Amino acid sequence: MSNLSSVNSNLFSRLRANVKTDFWTVGSLLIALVVLLPIIAVIYLAMFPTENIWPHLLSTVLPGYIRNTLWLMFGVCIGTFIIGTGTAWLVTMCRFPGRRIFEWALLIPLAMPAYVVAYVYTDLLNFSGPVQTLLRDTFGWRTPRDYWFPNIRSLGGAISMMVLVLYPYVYLLSRSAFLEQSATMLEASRTLGCSTWQSFLRVGLPIARPSIVVGVVLALMEALNDFGTVDYFAVRTLTAGIFNVWFHMKNLGGGAQIAVVLLLFIIALILIERFARRKKRYHSSTRSVSPPRIELKGWKTYGAILACILPILLGLIIPAIQLISYSIQYYEASISAGFLGYAKNSLMLSSMAALVAVTLGLFLAYAGRLGKGPFLASCLRLVSLGYAVPGAVLAVGILYPFGYFDNFVDAIMFERFGISTGLLLSGSMFILVYAYVARFLALSYGTVEAGLTRIRPNLDGAARTLGRSPSGVLRDVHVPILRGSLGTAAILVFVDTMKELPATLILRPFNFNTLATHVYQYAKDEQIEIAALGSLTIVLVGLIPTILLSYTISQSRSGGTQS
Amino acid sequence: MPLKKLCAFVAVATLMPLSASANQVNVYTDRQEFLIAPLINAFTEATGTQVNVVYASGAGMEERIKAEGRNSPVDLVMTVDVGRLVDMVNDGLTQPVISDVVEQNIPAEFRAEDGSWVGLTFRARPVYASKERVDPSEITSYFDLADPKWEGRICTRPGDHDYNLGLLASMIFHHGEDKAREWIQGVKANLVQAPQGNDRGQVQNIYTGLCDIAMVNTYYMGAMLANEQQRPWAESVNLIFVDQDTVGTHINLSGAVIARHAPNYDQAVQLLEFLSGDVAQEMYSSGNTEYPVKPGVQLSEVVQMWGEPKFDAESPAAITEYKGLALRIMNEVDFNAGP
Predict the structure, then answer these.
(1) Which of A131, A256, A305, A373 has its CA 20 to 30 A from that of A40?
(2) Under 8 Å between Cβ of A211 and A173
(3) Mean pLDDT of B229-235
């Protein structure tokens, strides 16, 4: 007995030693818990399926779903990596005509909802679209058996659409990493005989690795939680499986089980990457002068311009031209009295979500940096998971805990004071902002954390020696250095909230619209023409902060030059 | 963005009370706003009752009602598919509609006997066939689509879409699982390509010659005829209302239920009486080319064009229990893989 209690107290004291109870640890554990509530709820739902769906799924469509999901992840990973890092390197390290415009224009495709881009390209490229019609008229073909043309509604098509709108994640993150890289290292690499290209491959990329990985993982999570695009293209991924089991088999628990499998994909991905770069350090030894940009000459100039123009052309200009022509053609039908109000709602919610998510992201990332033990570290890694779950599933995970809380408070208040408080949070604006933060915290946390890893720890040490408290170090040292990363984080959350649809649809208050929900009612009814004007407005409203913050980030390059 | 303003915005929005006392009714619906808003406005104008709506298209509406529990503010739930309503009735989320007016307006086959759910409108899913390349007399039943003579000539949206699952579920309901499976396998063998795109896209495919036959809901026809660019697509096809000598052409029935904890029951009934009345039923028909359930209502020009075919009113509520089986069959025959 005494033996047991001594083991017990031993265990407790060890646990106490591992889990410190200071402000940063307790604060971040609380935040993590609140943000993870929907995920916990989804896991809970997964424990109560109405029947075991796996035998049927395994013997029929599941292998195909998994194959498609893996291919989609692979394609999006390669595509966003190449376009994102390549263009980011060009605009930060090289000098060529148009660089300043490309610097922010490369971001804008991010504001395009993927499903809208998918609709536009389908209209252009399918059998009945103008491109194939022109080909048929020119060459006298009639049926699809007369010639070969790549099918846009395919796995390859879905990968292309997603790469076009998701590469900006990688671009943004690797750009801010390249901007914060020191000149000395790159110069050293050149002195050691590296060509420009080699110093990109051997120094630039490896140092920026944590940021690039965050960007690619974010793009992959977004690809996994997408339903609109893959559904329209009839590419069946695990996400399609979730909805089929949930709706048609009326098995919410079974759907939640597939969602949990989806989570395992992401966790595996994160673990593999962490394992691959264990113990390596990514901060540069000095943070002195930004390297001078390399002047490109001859064909290299044209190559660089082409490399930057292509993603903008395909991800922004071509879809935008099509949307503009629809908007003009269907102006009367698409302009609605509430339009301005919807834009205002979107703007307000997106700003709120960005503000809260960046603040929490910074708090968590810094708490992680303070190094309070492995338990905290693994908790922090989990807060990103909300982003990998399809929005509608996450929304259900939000509905139940909030509904439970509201009814619980109502019951107590009624019992004690005879007052019915009804629903306090459910169906309010608060639940929407909460949903956005739970969903998009991965964006801000990942971005800020990647930025922090590039700051030398001895800076913290120095500031602490000079008498700063941990929060003082954060305020006076990190926040100024991190301006670029914080801006990046804010853009990402802002733009993603502008586009957010499934959670907004189901959680919103009465008589409430955002631009995204307004657009969706037409898109759902197969009227992309009438949805065009609203989609353009989403892009335009997303554009304002994007340009502003992009400017701030490029300023941080010169701002960060003093040592 | 000034921080203070933002905080105030959220605080006010959060604490906005939604009391039951005012003259209002709260609606959740998966139907689109541009369809429902004109009806709601007409109702408010006629009665002075304010209508609050959450347009919860997509997933999770039932989960929201369940999670909100006894404090849920919702009075009336309107869905595009009556199957969802039947499921809600079975889950104990509803209470019966008690109204003589509603009973008079809606024929018995379009509502539950005990008033637990009521149908409001329906859309048929006939066969669309090329005017140029298909003789309409060659197709009289959905079963004809499985005839090998149509090999390489049929196109459709994915098999796990609700409309196609509904049709397959009604085949199971009327003809049994084996015949339904055989039928969908035959249709699959006749496809020109893997199922993809939406309903209008299939009509466009017929217009451009990719295929000759498709299954498409009726109300898209009205929408395409009203759209300058799409009118030629619509004019290139005949609508064939199949199974006229047997069960009738398959339909989707839209409808409504009153929520179990509805704080404004009377107003919800009032709204249902309005929606099933002449004015609203005619608006459904003219605005969205749907079939009104109330007999004797003036049909829109387009709807009139199709005459008075026989519809399968029996299956919409019954097939909800076959949807899961329909999905299993679609998976087992691997319908989405195409021919």
Answers:
(1) A373
(2) yes
(3) 91
Grouping H, G, I as helix, E, B as strand and the rest as coil, residue B240 is strand
ipTM above 0.90, yes or no: no
- Cα distance between residue A553 and residue A543, in whole Å: 15
Q: What is the CATH number of domain A22-559?
A: 1.10.3720.10
**Domain residue ranges in chain B:** 24-122+252-299, 124-250+318-337
Unique residue bearing structure tokens 């559904």: A231
How close A74 comes to chain B (CA, Å)?
22
Tokens of A40: 């916990």
Which of A470-484, B170-184, B309-323, B324-338 is the most confident on average?
A: B170-184
State pLDDT tens for residues A261-285.
888 888 887 777 777 666 566 665 5
Residue B27, C-beta contacts closer than 8 angstroms, at least 6 positions apart? B40, B51, B52, B53, B54, B74, B75, B76, B77, B78, B271
How many Cβ atoms sit within 10 Å of the Cβ of residue A59?
Answer: 11
Share of chain A above pLDDT 70, in %: 90
Query: Token pair for residue A174?
Result: 């690797």
Size of interface A-B (CB pairs under 8 A): 190
Taking each helix axis from N to C end, the angle separating A515-524 and A114-125, rounded to the nearest 10 degrees, works out to: 30
**With an 8 Å Cβ cutoff, are B227 and A529 in contact?**
yes
Residues 6+ apart with CB under 8 A from A427: A507, A508, A509, A510, B18, B54, B68, B73
Q: Residue ranges of the domains in chain A?
A: 22-559
CATH of domain B124-250+318-337: 3.40.190.10
A526, A530, A544, A549, best to mutate vs chain B, most B CBs in 10 Å: A526
Residue B3 pLDDT grade (very low, low, confident, very high; cuts 50, 70, 90): low
Equal fold, B24-122+252-299 vs B124-250+318-337: yes
Residue B322 predicted with pLDDT over 50: yes
* B154-155 and B50-55 beta bridge pairing: unpaired
As a whole-number percent, the residues of chain B with pLDDT over 70 amount to 94
Residue entry with tokens 């009639």: A142
Disruptive mutation site among A127, A226, A412 for chain B (greatest number of B CBs within 10 Å): A127
B24-122+252-299 — its CATH code? 3.40.190.10
Residue B12: per-residue pLDDT: 46
A500 touches chain B (CB under 8 A): no
How many C-beta neighbours within 10 Å does residue A466 have? 10
Q: Tell me which amino acid residue A7 is.
A: V
Rounded to whole angstroms, how far apart are CA atoms A105 and A111? 11
One-letter identity of residue B122: F
Six-digit token string for B283: 């608006």
Tokens 């590469």 label which residue? A167
